[in-house]
Amino acid sequence: MTTTTRLPSLYISHGSPMTALEPGRVGMRLAELARDLPRPRAIVVASAHWLARAPLVGGATRPETIHDFGGFPQALYEIQYPAPGAPEVALRAAQLLHAAGLDPHIDPQRGLDHGVWVPLRLLYPDADIPVVPLSIQPMAGPEHQLAVGRALAPLRAEGVLVIGSGSITHNLHDWRRYSEGKPIAPYVQPYIEWVERKLAEGDVAAMLDYRRQAPGAEHAHPTDEHWQPIYVAMGAAGEHFRATRIDAGIDMGFLAMDLYRFDDALPAQAAA
């Protein structure tokens, strides 16, 4: 199935599970984004909360809502996001990944973890668009995630929205130090600005080398499973892309909630 409009790809900072109950600025920005996007026929989400050694694609017909967290209010565990699955889109994604030599497997039972359903509930609250979850392989590195995204790029012309779900900064060690109205962690704003600059420049090499080049990378991401979904979104936009940062604030003083929209580059940008 094809469509005349190529969808962008997205990187979403999904924040704490409490975002589902207290959506704040990111909720407003995602609602605005949904109004601006053509309606997709299906959504593929690479989540920081599904880790595997090889790409796994969720092929469930009715994926369950996974409450993969503890110690939160009961109301959060009662939330359901009953979006249908899309086994045919899962198969198509697996075929594309296989053609790229990435050894995918389909998981017929996988549900939607909170890295999937929390942001989708804010984007598409009616839960009426089929969803296919996708694992990431953080041990394989950023280049691998970029290759996954590039393999999935044809889906954008087939009415499928490709999303990477993680966080621009994510250091849970800083929760007590900076949450509850305390000052913003000093590494957050420099990291936000570096990412925006490098994506505006289309500097893929710098993005892949973020551990050495980005200011405060070791504090922004002590582990990088929440960072690496950005490469899936970036890769799905193709070799030449135009990145648009959407400022969704900073949650709890250490979680930068930026969203990124990746579109095809304008002709002059591509030529450059």
TrEMBL record:
Residues 31-240 form the Extradiol ring-cleavage dioxygenase class III enzyme subunit B domain. Keywords: Metal-binding, Oxidoreductase, Zinc. GO terms for molecular function: ferrous iron binding; oxidoreductase activity, acting on single donors with incorporation of molecular oxygen, incorporation of two atoms of oxygen; zinc ion binding. Its cofactor is Zn(2+). It comes from the Bacteria. Gene3D superfamilies: LigB-like. Belongs to the DODA-type extradiol aromatic ring-opening dioxygenase family. PANTHER family: 4,5-DOPA DIOXYGENASE EXTRADIOL-LIKE PROTEIN. This is Extradiol ring-cleavage dioxygenase class III enzyme subunit B domain-containing protein. It comes from Pseudoxanthomonas spadix (strain BD-a59).
